[in-house]
Amino acid sequence: MSSDNPQEIGRRIAACRRAHRYTQTALAAASHVSYAMVRAIERGARRPSDEVLEAIADALEVDVTRLRTDHAGTERRVHRALPALSEAIAGYDLALGPPSRGPEELADGITTAVGWRLAAQYGRIATVIPGLLTDAIRYVHTAPGAEHQGAARMLASAARTADAVAYKHGAHDLSARLIDLMRWAADRAADPLVQATASYVRAETFFAARAHAAGLVALEQAIEAAPAPDGRKQAAARGALHMRAAVIASRAQNVGATDTHLAHARQLSRQVGQEGCYLGTAFGPESVRIHEVSVAVSLGPGHADRALRAAAAWTPGIDLPAERRSGFYIELARAQDWAGRPVEAFTSLRMARAAAPQHTREHPWAREVARNLRRFHRSDADSLTHFAHWVGAV
Questions:
Q1: Nearest to 91 by CA among 151, 133, 143, 147
Q2: How is 226-244 classified by DSSP, letter by letter?
Q3: What is the pLDDT of residue 2?
Q4: Cβ-based neighbour number of residue 5 at 10 Å
Q5: In the chain, which residue ranges form alpha helices assigned H by DSSP?
Q6: Cα separation of 91 and 310, whole Å?
Q7: How far apart (Å, rounded) are the C-alpha atoms in residues 272 and 270?
Q8: Lower CB count within 10 Å: N or C terminus of the chain?
């Protein structure tokens, strides 16, 4: 692991600033940090506080851990936002006045937040999503008739983005309420594709409760209700539901259903042809291959070889969402740990961190693998101990 002394932090900030084509003055303005502070930090004369570091990282559009590898401040930003999220949705079925933003500004803000969700930038989402969600709810209640369905689609997207923050940080009750809001909005959008997406996200409530058999029933009902796959978006929506059904079936130890749904997802990915993000969900051949690893790991240690075969001589493309790439490496690390490949497992954990640090740090399987490696394997002990502390495994 790299040093996190003030000089090294300053060097990283300066390098990222130059890559972003910012002057020190421009960075100070974009981050709302004084010019004198930016200069002092880059010289290594001042160690930035968490708040200052996060503001600079946001301005440079990089993850905070690229500037300080041991940064763990995302939880503070998220947990500060959770009460505001709860307040925002408490009266979602009530007309409480007009939004503070116009439709175009609101749409742009939600689109930006969706991009952060796919990049697993939960800290950045947390700073804006309570306000976006409040305005999206108000817009649904005040939109003219011709705009109402579009407003409902925006609300569904905002609710899903907020749910990612809540779910990944263990606020499962709030996550379930946000998913209910997403389903409410999807019904008002009267768009079968938005409803299919809401069903995909709803599976989180079953994962959180370990109600895997019930979750499989819910997903299979959603697949039956989904539009026929006669277009790329329709095929992607149905294929994503099959991918998620395969995972929840594997958690239920239902190998037959796992293989059936994975086969359907594979067929639909060939029909879609190109990996892409459809209504906020990544789907395509690469996503299906990642899920081949995921289901094998979910089936348990006895299927580690299946996971390793699925991942053999392949790496996910850089164009895939960071969260999905990170998930692939975490699950691969778990299979490698089971197979007695500790060096490879630790390499995979570091790849997961490089792809999406915030997602990796909140993933229980990343902590589990790091804890196992630290307990039973002593190679690269300093780096492993540093990683284990960062991920919360010790």
A1: 133
A2: SPPS-SHHHHHHHHHHHHH
A3: 54
A4: 12
A5: 6-19, 24-31, 35-43, 50-60, 74-89, 103-118, 122-142, 148-168, 172-189, 192-209, 212-225, 232-251, 255-272, 285-299, 304-311, 322-338, 342-355, 357-361, 364-376, 381-391
A6: 46
A7: 5
A8: C
**Whether the Cβ atoms of residue 282 and residue 320 lie closer than 8 Å to each other:** yes
- C-alpha closest to that of 195 among 212, 207, 179, 172: 179
Instruction: Kindly state the tokens that stand for 394.
Output: 């010790």
Report DSSP letters for 342-386, one per residue.
Answer: HHHHHHHHHHHHHH-HHHHHT-HHHHHHHHHHHHH--TTHHHHHH
* Residues in the chain, pLDDT under 50: 1
Residue type, 141: H
Q: Which letter does DSSP use for residue 304 in this model?
A: H
Nearest alpha carbon to residue 269 among 303, 232, 218, 295: 232
Count of residues in the chain: 394
**Cα 59 to Cα 29: distance, rounded to the nearest angstrom:** 9
Q: How many CB atoms are closer than 10 A to CB 156?
A: 30
Q: CA 125, CA 78: separation in Å to the nearest integer?
A: 8
Output the CA–CA distances (angstroms, integers) from residue 320 to 119, 290, 317, 348, 355, in the order listed.
9, 11, 6, 17, 10
Say what the pLDDT of residue 65 is.
Answer: 82
- CA distances to 70, 115, 152, 346, 393 from 389, in Å: 9, 29, 42, 14, 6
Instruction: Give the burial string for 215-229 (b: 16+ CB within 10 Å, else e).
Output: bbebbbebbeebbeb
**Which residues have C-beta within 8 Å of that of residue 104, sequence separation ≥ 6?**
none
- 71-106 pLDDT, tens digit per residue, is 767 788 898 999 999 999 999 999 999 999 999 999
Tell me which amino acid residue 227 is: P
- Quick one: pLDDT at residue 380? 62
Token pair of 18 as six digits: 């130059």
Give pLDDT, residue 72.
67
Q: Helix 322-338 vs helix 103-118: angle between axes, to the nearest 10 degrees?
A: 20
**What local confidence, expressed as pLDDT, does residue 229 receive?**
95
